[in-house]
Amino acid sequence: MFVLMVYDVNVKRVNKVLKIGRKYLQHIQNSFLEGELSPAQFKSLRQEIKKTIKPEEDCVRFYLLRTTKYLTIDQLGTPQKSAARPDTSVDFL
Amino acid sequence: MFVLMVYDVNVKRVNKVLKIGRKYLQHIQNSFLEGELSPAQFKSLRQEIKKTIKPEEDCVRFYLLRTTKYLTIDQLGTPQKSAARPDTSVDFL
User: Fold this and answer.
1) CA of B25 to nearest chain A CA: how many angstroms apart?
2) Yes or no, beta carbons of B74 and A61 under 8 Å apart
3) Which residue of A has its CA nearest to B82?
4) Which terminal Cβ of chain A has fewer Cβ within 10 Å, N or C?
5) ipTM value
6) Nearest to A77 among B28, B53, B75 (CB)
7) Model's pTM, two decimal places?
8) Is there a domain that residue B38 lies in?
């Protein structure tokens, strides 16, 4: 499945959360990652994140898409530094 | 359609981009918004953003979902300040 991950965590845990995310997903922009994962991989990513964050102070949201058939990605401008997506528009159709 | 918007723009334009985004979508986390839009509304949002950003310095990505049938949102922790989503897990099924 296609997974988007977006986080808003205390600065103390930003690096840890990003490091975990990067083990599974591609870093697209600040606080935002995406990638194709198996259900088992997602479970493991979720568990690692859950152990790392403080639920009162942090928030991590996952968008799980069981298919990318109905998804279009439309990009304006250029990814900066860490982001590695040269394409301007990707249609999964 | 369901639209996710994630931006990484020069600090000079952050407020402008967020302000435009908020006219159409709900602000979920830093640099991240989502909401249900008609194709016409999306076109208008995209146009406003395009006019505002500098493509060499900024990047705005839209994820367009023609259906939310295959989407699950899974949230860990608590949204901070501006984010207004009390729910911990939403399944569109």
Assistant:
1) 16
2) yes
3) A8
4) C
5) 0.84
6) B53
7) 0.85
8) yes
pLDDT tens profile A28-44: 998 999 999 999 999 99
Residues from B in contact with A at Cβ < 8 Å: 4, 6-9, 28-32, 46, 49-50, 53-67, 69-80, 83
Q: Write the CA distances from B67 to A37, A52, B84, integer angstroms.
A: 20, 32, 23
Q: Is residue B79, in this structure, part of any structural domain at all? A: no
Quick one: which of B25, B29, B27 has its CA closest to B78?
B29
Under 8 Å CB pairs connecting chains A and B tally to 142
Amino acid present at B16: K
pLDDT tens per residue, range B12-66: 999 999 999 999 999 999 899 999 999 999 999 999 999 999 999 999 999 999 9
Judge whether B65 and B37 are in contact, CB under 8 Å: no
Task: Look up the domain containing A25 and give its range.
Answer: 2-68
